[in-house]
Amino acid sequence: MDEGYIKFNCERIPSDDIPLDKVAALNMYREIMYNKGLIGMYPDGIGFGNISIRCDENTFLISGTATGGIPVLDKSHYSLVTDYNLQTNRLICKGPINASSESLTHALIYESSPSTNAIIHIHNLALWNQLMHKVPTSDNLVPYGTPEMAKEIKRLFEETSLSNEKIMVMGGHEEGIISFGKNLEEAANVLLEKL
């Protein structure tokens, strides 16, 4: 099982300069997802789920790798993604922790949808099965956290109603569902309405 592992080259610039106002907003909605078991940790100790918010046109703040099982995060659990390159499978982040293994996926959603300012990635098997191919669904041969998944995100924006539905199933990432919106409230509501 490769769940939770970073599949890109992550270059982290150590820093504790994390915007606290963004952390507070992220934590409010992350707590809702955590309490519903949509973000958390499997019995084998592998964490799942992540959340991000756009900071400006080129950066976003995302929960760090292996933080799914932590009930309440603080600024030491977030990373600011400042750049990425799909061709070289490389991501640059700044902060006290490496960015989530889903950071490339978040990056391509922000790139493909300029009006998107927040993204939530959860795990829920029942909802995953219910929504499979009823909402935009990525190819089941494409694994999470890879340049191929990032390209698949781009394809879904171009060929499906993803921009309007604001929710997708990750076909090759069992239980994985992503929602997004103009703010965290919209991204959360898209998910909660489906539940």
Describe this protein's structure.
The chain has a single domain (9-194), classed as Class II aldolase/adducin N-terminal domain (L-fuculose-1-phosphate Aldolase, 3-Layer(aba) Sandwich), CATH 3.40.225.10. The relative contact order is 0.18. β2 (40-41) and β3 (47-48) form a beta hairpin. The radius of gyration is 15 Å and the shape is globular. The protein has an eight-stranded mixed sheet, with helices on both faces. It has a two-stranded antiparallel sheet with strand order 2-3. 31% of the residues lie in helices and 26% in strands. The protein is built from six helices and ten strands; from the N terminus they run βαββββββαβαααββα. The longest helix has 16 residues, at 20-35. The chain is α+β, with helices and mostly antiparallel strands and 195 residues long.
Measured between the Cα atoms of the first and last residue, the distance is 27 Å
Instruction: Name the strands of the widest sheet in spatial order.
Output: 1-7-6-5-4-8-10-9
- SS strand fraction: 25-35%
Task: Provide the helix percentage.
Answer: 25-40%
Q: Compute the number of structural domains.
A: 1
How many strands in all?
Answer: 10
- The CATH topology is given as L-fuculose-1-phosphate Aldolase
Give the low-pLDDT segments: none
pLDDT average, as an integer? 94
